[in-house]
Prior knowledge:
By secondary structure, this protein is mainly beta. It is built from two helices and 18 strands. It has helices spanning 235-243, 258-265; strands at residues 5-8, 14-18, 33-38, 54-57, 59-60, 64-67, 71-79, 83-93, 98-107, 114-121, 131-133, 136-138, 153-154, 158-163, 166-172, 177-180, 198-205, 218-229. Strands 5, 6, 7, 8, 9, 14, 15 and 18 form an eight-stranded antiparallel β-sheet that branches. The protein has a six-stranded antiparallel β-sheet with strand order 4-3-10-17-16-13, with no helix packed on it. β1 and β2 (14-18) form a beta hairpin. The mean pLDDT is 90.
Amino acid sequence: AAKPAVETDADGWPVAASWPGMAKPLFQGAPGGLIVVSRETPATRSKLKAEELAHVRAEYGAAVVKETPHTVVYTQAFRHKRLGAASRELELWRREARARVTVRLERLSSPAPECLYLEFAMPVEGRLPRFSNGGMAFTPYADQLPGSCRDYYAIDSWAHYDTPQGHWLWVTRDAPLVTVGGPHTLRLIKDAPKDSHRICAMVFDNFWHTNFVANSHGLFEFQFELAWKSDLADAGALAATLLSEPLIVETPGLPATPELLKSLFTP
């Protein structure tokens, strides 16, 4: 019967969820919100400027709640003029500070430059996350060479916020390009943003400075994991665990081979 304390918005979508022992909620604001960055009026790619770009959020319908023995699941459809069918799902674990966000959307065909982001925020204002690239942990904006890219980052899968109130972990399964503080398309920022507690996954980008226009369209699905721990020694190991899938092996009425046992149970 245990389940987290949940605060929802007017449409019934959670904007905060807390478990026993937490001083602050797992997330802040609606997780998995869509922002589309594009130019509303025609322009050549060479004349695009950040101040001329529109940031248009999706519109959301009423959330539907379903309870399972181990989780509570919220589902919500949303609309945007650049999309066909679209929905998001938030699954909250009952007995641990953990959540899974799944976003499904249909991008309509268009060669026009645009960038799609899914936004998340944690209650850790004033903190910079810790990322990892190729197994090497780093803090964006702090551990960078002068002049290197700060608009977005390529990460292994996770962002870790270390605070006196505990550890917040954000994990992306499918979208390794992320931004800190919101969409920064074409801005070429140099300093860390003030809202560094906010992370956006870049799930589509047609602003690439290349010699072609990538008009990817159709159905997309992206999944994210959120977790809180009072103590956390290895963020990468926990991220790998959250992304792992259960393994079930059914064996016939014969002894299991040593090779099988070695593959399954030897780290």
